[in-house]
Write a structure and sequence with these properties.
By secondary structure, the chain is an alpha+beta fold. The protein is built from 23 helices and nine strands. The protein folds into three domains: about 180 residues, no CATH class; about 400 residues, Multidrug efflux transporter AcrB transmembrane domain (Multidrug efflux transporter AcrB transmembrane fold, Up-down Bundle); about 110 residues, no CATH class. The chain is about 60% helix and about 10% strand.
């Protein structure tokens, strides 16, 4: 498995990030070949702020020309869809004495003479490219290209990290004290995430060292401390090896899963070592007998907890987005490996451990037990009315707050830039610079106006598309709109010396003379004009903006159905985000219900007790709702990167409750009073639960300092979930047990609870 793990390669893909089964994405794939996809890269060559001049300068245009050529030869670029002032498809049109004159904005006989530069300035003004390929202040120009999912020269899947490195090389080559190079696009996001991911190894090392130190403090022995750590590391190696064996790579957005497997492995390993140590020190068993006793006590509840995690993670497969499904498979493989390393290997190794000075070891352990017993006596009070009632009141208040905040949880992004990176990252700085200088922005929604063949020469259908464009132009959040009728109106005005009053569509004449001059490179119609995309440039890709714009499209399409034009959503990066948000919104509740239903089923199968299900499940449900409330409060949206946190956090939290209840139920079955039964459960496993939570909290705390915003967000959410799960297991679980079994102490009747 180690050999396989070392062969694991990074694996990022644009189509992995999108729900291909969503209706929007089916439309996207249907017209991808004709009108391009949403996997774009944009490079803006811009004058530095404070420097004199504009783009009409020999040196600037030379840089723009070289950047265009470099982008043209990037691996994976669709060379037919590279656009800049220097590409032939960018043309101007003007009215002259004998009709129209057209030509390339930058002539093919370009020479950097003053006359040619003046001519280019004039052509740019006539080409309607200011705001699209030329910045509004004409101090910057754009190169736009589309990437293919597979490299056309090799047929292999495109290496986005290599593309990002080449893009960064372009920046280094041409950026100077006069010129800024701004780069945006999915490939650059993957590159920046991959670069920042290198620090994950540092966090992994910190987590290992801190966990080892805590294990030593907990076990009082380096040998015992190393055992659960090595068992967890073995599970991580198996996870990565199985991932490679199954034909997957490690996506940069799934780099946090090995952390979680390490943490879960340590959690279960500590339970075994703690129980083994208790059997040796308190019950006087030798290593082998202690290991057998520990195995009998913990194998079933521990394995049930892990199987619950596996099935809980597998429910993420309901989200039909490949990256989320890969994370689910990745986590499920890791949890299966934990069963082997912690439930089979670790007990065998513990049976071989020899304690050299048994009496001294037992004396140290008894001293530790005596110190902790004072704490457990106080904590056990939560199984009595005096502490249980206030705890239940606090939990009820927290539940009300969470239910009030839950409707405010946003599905999608709440930030203007790329949420995976810090707001001050180079990418987001570039994105803001481009968005502030170009009218089209960096976010586009393509809506396909589908009609009969040659709809572009039908006045009624063109009028319908024009009304749609006007409707969308006046929608809040839309920066600008580009459509074929708009260009046709400009052409008609040109026939009448540019008079604004003629900038309308004719109602009773053939439109062919108006649409024929429109260059095909604009991508506003297919050859037979049966499909005419309308490009809607939005101000940002916040979830609220996307919802508002998409709803405006749906409203117009519904109110104008039957007019011969079908407005179909969607393409462009905003279309991809809209589909992703709708997929998560439709499936998110289903995933959470399945996760908790699975927990309830396995809790009942383990203990055959409704009280057990109630006491184990309630803190987990409350923790999930509180996490959603926190996300709504902090402005963290529900996205493919944050959705798995709910399943992961609940999966880890159930371990605490199952281990505690497995001991608690044995004493309840013997008619032991509630407080005494919970005290014994804490003595046996409480310290391990608290230690596990402390090690998990310390591991994810380092994530808060990551250069990746999504890792910091996940770290914060996991930190909160680990803490609330701990409080729920230690304090709320006994309070709930008191609520359900409070009559039991006054009328002692054994509670039905299967001893596992």
């Amino acid at each position: 498995m180690l050999v396989l793990a070392l062969r694991l390669q990074p694996d990022a893909g644009f189509e992995k990030q999108i729900p291909l089964d969503h209706p929007y994405m089916k439309v996207f794939k249907r017209y991808e070949q004709a009108f391009g996809g949403a996997n774009l890269i944009s490079i803006a060559v811009m004058r530095k702020p404070g420097t004199p001049g504009d783009i009409y300068d020999a040196g600037f245009l030379d840089t723009l020309h070289k950047v265009t050529d470099d982008v043209f030869f990037l691996p994976g670029v669709d060379r037919s869809r590279v656009t800049s002032l220097f590409t032939p498809g960018v043309r101007y049109m003007e009215v002259v004495e004998d009709g129209f004159s057209t030509g390339d904005v930058i002539p093919r006989d370009y020479r950097p003479t003053p006359e040619m530069l003046a001519r280019i300035r004039s052509n740019v003004g006539k080409a309607n490219v200011i705001g699209r390929l030329v910045s509004l202040d004409q101090r910057g120009a754009m190169v736009v290209a589309e990437l293919l999912e597979r490299d056309p020269s090799t047929g292999a899947r495109l290496d986005y990290r290599a593309v990002a490195a080449r893009l960064e090389a372009i920046r280094q080559r041409y950026e100077n004290d006069q010129i800024d190079i701004r780069i945006i696009g999915f490939a650059k996001v993957v590159g920046d995430v991959s670069d920042a991911s290198s620090e994950v190894l540092m966090f992994f090392a910190i987590a290992l060292l801190s966990t080892l130190l805590l294990l030593w403090m907990f076990c009082g022995s380096w040998r015992l401390a190393l055992l659960p750590l090595f068992a967890a590391l073995a599970a991580v190696v198996w996870e990565l090896g199985l991932l490679r064996l199954a034909g997957f790579g490690l996506d940069p957005f799934a780099i946090l899963v090995p952390f979680l497997i390490l943490s879960i492995g340590v959690s279960h390993g500590v339970q075994y070592v703690n129980a083994w140590r208790y059997e040796v020190a308190v019950n006087g068993l030798d290593s082998r007998e202690a290991s057998i006793a520990t195995f009998r006590q913990l194998f079933i509840p521990g394995t049930v907890a892990i199987l619950t995690d596996v099935i809980g993670f597998a429910t993420l497969a309901f989200i039909k987005i490949d990256i989320v499904r890969e994370m689910a498979i990745n986590a499920a493989m890791g949890m299966a490996a934990v069963i082997i390393s912690n439930k089979l290997m670790l007990p065998i190794v513990l049976s071989w451990v020899r304690v050299h000075d048994v009496e001294a070891f037992r004396a140290r352990q008894r001293q530790r037990v005596a110190l902790s017993d004072r704490v457990w006596q106080r904590v056990a009070a939560f199984a009595t009315a005096q502490a249980a009632i206030p705890t239940l009141i606090v939990a009820a208040v927290a539940l009300v707050w969470a239910l009030v905040m839950y409707p405010k949880l946003t599905v999608g992004d709440q930030q203007a830039g790329v949420p995976e990176l810090r707001p001050d990252s180079r990418y987001n700085v570039d994105s803001r610079a481009i968005g502030g200088s170009f009218a089209i922005g960096v976010d586009v929604l393509k809506v396909f106006a589908v009609g009969a063949p040659y709809s572009c020469v039908d006045p009624q259908k063109m009028e319908e598309i024009d009304r749609f464009a006007w409707h969308m132009q006046n929608t809040d959040g839309v920066r600008s709109v580009l459509s074929l009728p708009q260009i046709a109106k400009q052409v008609r005005a040109g026939w009448f010396e540019g008079s604004p009053k003629w900038r309308v569509l004719p109602r009773n004449q053939n439109l062919s003379q108006l649409v024929a001059p429109v260059p095909s490179q604009l991508g506003l119609q297919n050859p037979d004009c049966s499909v005419m995309p309308v490009l809607i440039f939005t101000r940002d890709h916040r979830a609220s903006t996307i919802d508002r714009v998409v709803n405006a499209v749906k409203t117009f399409a519904r109110d104008n159905a039957g007019h011969g034009v079908d407005f179909q959503l969607a393409s462009g990066n905003v279309g991809v985000w809209a589909a992703t948000n709708e997929e998560i919104r439709a499936r998110e509740l289903l995933v959470i219900i399945w996760v908790h239903a699975t927990l309830a089923l396995f809790a009942w199968l383990s203990f055959r007790s409704g009280v057990a299900v109630f006491c184990i499940l309630t803190p987990l449900v409350l923790c999930s709702l509180l996490t959603y409330g926190l996300m709504a409060t902090l402005g963290i949206g529900m996205k493919p990167a944050t959705l798995p946190v709910a399943a992961f956090g609940v999966g880890i939290g159930v371990d605490y409750s199952i281990y505690l209840w497995s001991v608690f139920s044995r004493h309840l079955d013997r008619a032991t009073p509630l407080r005494k039964a919970y005290y014994e459960a804490l003595r046996h496993t409480g310290k391990a639960v608290i230690f596990t939570s402390a090690s998990l909290v310390l591991s994810v705390f380092t994530w808060l300092f990551s250069g990746l915003q999504f890792q910091a967000d996940m770290g914060l959410l996991l930190l909160f979930m680990f803490s609330t799960n701990l409080f729920g297991a230690i304090f709320l679980l006994p309070a709930l047990a008191w609520l359900a079994l409070r009559r039991r102490d006054t009328n002692p009747t054994p509670v039905r609870a299967v001893e596992t």
